[in-house]
## 1
Amino acid sequence: MLKYYMAFLLALVLGAILAFPVLKLCKKFHLSQTILHYVDKHSGKSGTPTMGGLIFIFAIILSSIFFLQGQIGGAAIALATMLGYGLLGFLDDFIKVKFHKNEGLKPYQKIIGQVGISLIIALYVYFNKGGKLEFFGLDIDIGVFIIPFIIFFFVAVTNSVNLIDGLDGLAGGVNAVYFLFFGIILALLGQTQYALISFAAVGALLAFLIVNCFPAKIFMGDTGSLALGGLMAAVAALSGTELLMPILGFMFVITAFSDILQVLHYKRTHKRIFLMAPLHHHFEKKGVHENRIVLVYILITLVLGVCLLAIYMALKGFI
């Protein structure tokens, strides 16, 4: 357990050290976010530096490598996946900054990149671990169908994390709580490599929140949100615990679902279900301050984490 604490602390320190130099560099090179014109309450955030995800990406990688050392194994694939998705997000952010608009890569270009990376992971999992999924102590073998399942899982998770990144501290805060409980559960399951990465992610994200909590001095950008989504999906896929993500990550699921529901309903009826999607923007339109929304999202994830952990501890005989 000491190694988990140390990975958390090292990532926290590294993230705190990196935060302000990255912020300064982003300001120097005018890597600023263009805010969508229809998010009127965010007009004052226009010009805020982006690509802040670099802070926690490097902190997670350095901390994980330091403590995993020669036992890195599948953890290297998880970290490489995070980096791959981060590079895809970086390209998206770069196009936005270069052409001073909020749209970077085309949706189909993002999907091609996401599917390409996830296909590699899916093939690795199938040929090295088979088609088994773990769910509350039960092994579910879906055979070769694990390949399309993992591809779908990656696309769903990465885009859900990307969608929830809409308020100061929201994506960072919810992800920190998610990785905390996911790391504890992975530790209980004996998945030490992936547990260590998860604890490193918690420390790195807390450091990022120093400059990202309201009012945000820097945004994580797609660089950060896609990297986090990639890491989340990779850790789950490589450990065979994909089915836990929709439970612990319920706020990611409901965020994506609200956006999909809004689009489908509008195309069919030309009417909106929510004042604005994803769901957190609907609450903003209703007059709820973004800090309150962020707090509620974090608390819900915290409660879900406690419940999920209690179930696992009961199954393992700890309670």
## 2
Amino acid sequence: MGTNIDMTEYDVIVVGAGPIGSTAARYAAMHGARTLMVEDHSFIGSPVGCTGLLSTKAVSECDIEPSDDFVYNSVRGAFVHPMNGECLPIDGKKTKAYVVSRKMFDRRLAVMALEEGVELSLNTRVNDIETSSEKQKISVVRNGQPETIEAKVIIAADGVRSKVAKMAGLGNVSKVLPGIQVEVPYRSDDTDFVELFAGSQVPGFFGWAVPVNENISRVGMAIDPKYGVSAHQVLENLLTQNPHVASRYGGGKLDLVMGGIPLGPLEKTYAKGVLVVGDAAGQVKPTSGGGIYTGAVCAKIAGEMAARASAEEDSSENFLLEYDRRWRGKIGKELAMGMRIHNFIGGLKDSELDELIGSMNNPAILDTITRYGDMDHPSILMKKMLHPSRSVHILKVFRAFAKAVL
């Protein structure tokens, strides 16, 4: 799917051809910029570093309709398993997310970028950037050969350990949760529901079982490294020692995915001639670790702003600051609340988390969750949960939660 670099000078160069890079590149091209997208891997969509569970909003924010080309299954809710106590069933009543082939999804978005005139160069590694002159010079190694390309604006969409963000002096996201997932034989009770595992069995975050079909699920988790435990070991324990999972796990592993979930956005996502987007900027929901919806929202702004900067021949920090201001205006509050929810829940003892989950297991609360639950906007549900009409017990349980997160 690669093309040769036809010239050495572009308006916009996007580093990274994942969904967020492809979306940014497409929007830059749609706004009239000659755009090149470079990717250091030899293929689009591999290696995969994601669960492959995308909210319906994430898919539509990428401007595509769900199709059998990349959707394996759709889910409408979740079974939440605390350490002790009853499972909490959350039923959205309609499709809330898709289980996808990330390889096919990523390729679809890359093709859409190419159809807008974006050039793509695979097997192209960025070694250095120079932003002191009017144009940004990028040193790359393409198919083993060193080359220099120039652009008016660089968009860094090169993931959680972004080299470009670092080279631009913006640093990397400080907190990254290591994640690991395996695709395994697994007897799913209901393929319309994902399963979530909370508490000290997955310290600092949560575990999941995402059904691909009745017989195969993606079982994974992310943990907070401050607990000093191995992600591999925690996953192995979940598969073999959690009674619920172990009774459904058929043994063996069909596929393995590893990655990092960045928590908390960079303080600054722009520098002279450079915009940072997606995982590289920490534009990820701290509640779920999902980054496609939030990243796509920001990628569209980044593509448009890069094209404008190019057209007006102004790639100064002063001009590019608008990108930072606009994306924070759209999702900044949700990310901040998500971080507070993450920190609050991460600080609970198992018994406190069990009580919180148990208190939600009543018809009125479950109905509220069904009506207002939104994977991409947790603040909507939080505010509804704290309505004065709630019982005294529910309000007591949620008061500490509310105080910490609102």
## 3
Amino acid sequence: MRGLKDKVAVVTGASRGIGRGIALRLAQEGCKVVVNYNRSAEAAQSVVDTIREQGGEAIAIQADVSDYQQAQRLIKETLKAFGRVDILVNNAGTTRDQLLLMMKEADWDLVINTNLKSCFNVTKAALRSMMKQRYGRIINITSVVGLAGQAGQSNYAASKAGIIGFTKSLAKEIGSRNITVNAVAPGYIPTDLTNVLPDEMVKEMIALTPLGRAGTVEDVAAAVAFLASDDASFITGHVLTVDGGLVMQ
């Protein structure tokens, strides 16, 4: 895709799942990739090693991006290593599913902070550099659950819906600086995060998906690469669903 060669991309929560797929795809497109992780150091290093084996450039940086100071450090270390931040993919996320009447306050706070507050933390840290260079691509990973809701996921749905509002508002704020802000909303994608879902729920989601299958991390990564590229330079404030049509149901 046009315009990705030698761009510096930060991908949060990139040690596994969708984040890993995004990091690998951006590296294949020629980006220098910062693989952010919180606890999975070995998995993050595996992503870096894979990118390097394929001739790309990558480093791993540990930071709990739900913490403001650590998010600031992530961007400072990126700037120290590469001198700039061109692409930011806010992908870090978690779930703590439970019906609201039984949900613990700690589980609500953890999901909101990990999924939503992290977008504020890392984006604010990266914005000054992007505004100075008058270029940036910010892609936030939301979910079809943020568009349609899901019983037992009020915390997750609220965080993902919040990301959509965040995306649209920020797009209006910084568009004049040649910085685009978009979101990608995956449907059912088998990952470690979704492996905890009951088999009945998985079967129901696939049955409701017009394309009749689960998605892949590569499907999501391709959408992110497109939005990060020059091919999407006139797209901002958009939510791109990568869900096989699930949200229409």
